[in-house]
Write a structure and sequence with these properties.
Elements: E1 5-11, H1 22-35, E2 39-44, H2 50-63, E3 69-79, E4 90-91, E5 109-110, H3 111-119, E6 125-133, E7 145-151, E8 158-159, E9 164-165, H4 166-177, E10 181-182, H5 183-192, E11 198-200, E12 209-211, H6 228-247, H7 271-278, E13 283-290, E14 293-299, H8 305-308, E15 323-326, E16 331-338, E17 344-350, H9 354-357, H10 361-371, H11 379-394, H12 399-415, E18 417-425, E19 434-443, H13 453-462, H14 464-488, E20 497-501, H15 503-506, H16 509-522, E21 529-534, H17 551-566, E22 569-575, H18 582-587, E23 592-595, H19 605-618, E24 625-629, H20 639-644, E25 649-651, H21 668-679
Parallel strand pairs: 1-2, 1-3, 3-6, 6-7, 19-20, 20-21, 21-22, 22-23, 23-24, 24-25
Antiparallel strand pairs: 3-4, 4-5, 7-11, 8-9, 10-12, 13-14, 13-17, 15-16, 16-17, 18-19, 18-25
Amino acid sequence: MANQRFAVMVGVDDAGSLLRFAERDAEAMRDQFEAEGFETCLFTGLNATAGEIKATLRQAVMRSGKSDVLVVYFAGRTVTPEWSRGADTYLITHDLDESALSENPDSGVRMAFLERDVLEFFAGAAVLFVDAVGDAPEGSRPAYSALTSYAEDAATREDPVIRHGVLTAHILATLHRQPSVTFGSLAQAVREQGLTPQVMSPPEGDAVVLAGPADQPGRPASRPLANPMDAAAGEILHLISRLTHHARMPRHAAPRSAGSRAEAGGAAPSRVEYLRAATDAHSSALLEYTANGFQTIDSSKRFDLDVIRPLLRFPAGADWFGHTVHDDHRTVLCVPLRLAEGRSLLLALVDPVADLLGLGQPLAKILETIWRTDFAASPDEAEIEVLTALRDAFGRLPVPLYEHCFELYRRVVKSYCVVFQPVVTLGKTARRVGVHSYEALARRSPSDQRAPVAMLRLAEVWGDRFVVERDKVILRMALHAYAQAHAEGPWAQPKPVSVNVAVRSLLSDAYVETLRTTIAELAIDPETVTLEISEQDPIEPRRGEQWAEAPHAYFHNRLAAIARDVGVAFAVDDFGEGYASLSRMAELPLTQIKVDRAILHHPLAAKELSLVMDTARYAGHAPRVVIVEGVDNESPLTLREIYEQRIRHVQGYITRQPAAPTLSTISPETSEYIAALVRGDDEHRDTLITRADDLPLQRGA
């Protein structure tokens, strides 16, 4: 039969790379192409197996004729095995065993198979769509058309508002909106929305009809795509500067929210007026859309919903990423804030300054992010969130925006202060209870007991340069604060101090040099300094790096060299989370093991603590001090039970004093209180700490 049209859709969510909507993307693409008359086959979740996918594709090739069309779509993660030396990329299916590929390369769906055995061998016209996180295959000049996006430098390319991959959402919206769509016109429409996928097609491939009658091919218009932010970097920086300026004005400033972000719809009443002023719009409003249509939740002066209501519509697909509507009198920029079943929120800006509208989709992402940030409370942190959102949505930032974000991040981290939380030595008598050491913790202010966890971890999103700079800044601040606090404190001999550090920083010569010079400058005994390595950090080479030894052996030798050169010690932090393993604890030259509070809530907590103690005791390195973190009033284990596991050190608010910039001893009353808990005198109570005047326990970070 002539003029057959086939579509094979594959979607695989991936928790490791935080892909949540890949399967939803494949289902939506299946529905769209099915509506266009394609014969479709969908593979998602457990059904997305390499064997079934390849068998289906081979059947499509065997049935194909010269007038047929094949569309292959993949959403998920891709990987290039190290043994292939970059020459072979695989689509990650549910059943893929990456460790087995070196022995059986054909056990997965290889791009080489997809290209040579399917797309190039198909008798008719073939089109490939890939919306993926991972490695891009090596470039080629294919005999098929391809619109692909491989986000190598981003955690995901999904948007939680539209609940689709960004590229896929625009593909769906174009197919839905336009009566006739060719591959060339689709690529052009995606380019106009500000995305930068790779576009490849033979000369005749642009005319392949994807939507509408096959005898109305439309105008092919495919050309190389460029990141729209490259040309708009200056305008984006100017807009962010305006937003920061207006946020600092008293009439727009809002108090800092209880969390790191304000919930959409729960912002201060001045938020809509703030955005109106920053965009020089005629008026603005927060609108709610339900089955009954649009209603105003909050608005600036002069906003009239009845006037613009005829322009408003509930947009489909990628239009929820932001769109503009207009008539002869006014223009309305619509930005989604939250999309939910039965109730959605939309920000409407009436007649914003015309220059801003030229920014396109980046403008919508900027405004959506601004709505859930707190520019007035911390303009620098809010700017970083905006730039991070742009990077997540569009894959990369132009150099001026990247450098601006780096300087902002350095400035934010430098604005933090350092407080010290004591590690307490346990004993059955008050005189045996005391301070063992301190951990230096970063805080926004001395009185703020909440760690700026989200901002500190943001460095990992941006890469090693941010991570190393963050750790260098915090190291310098921590050691300077420690030296001053000890000079003013009660201790004749310095108490040890620990500082958190990432694996990638310890692999950086720049970080080690900062460590060495700071210790020398302050005349600190290096043996009193311990660097805590989080268990949440993988010990593995970056893609493209070559380590001469197995990862743990390589990292062990790196730590040993630093210890010999500088004289500091090392600890493992957060043991029991992330990449936790007894092999890491046993193989690295550690002097401390800090057990995460999560272990205390495990049903076999006592046995796990005993195993940790045995490993620490019999490892081939120096004896390790085991410290249990976060001992609190919710812990199933009492302090007596912890002590009975041979553990003599804990950390947390058990001293009933918050972390502070100064160092102090434990009061006699607190020492007796802790000793009583160790003896079990108070175990008729349900919790370790129950009095109303006791401070709630929080995990330091």
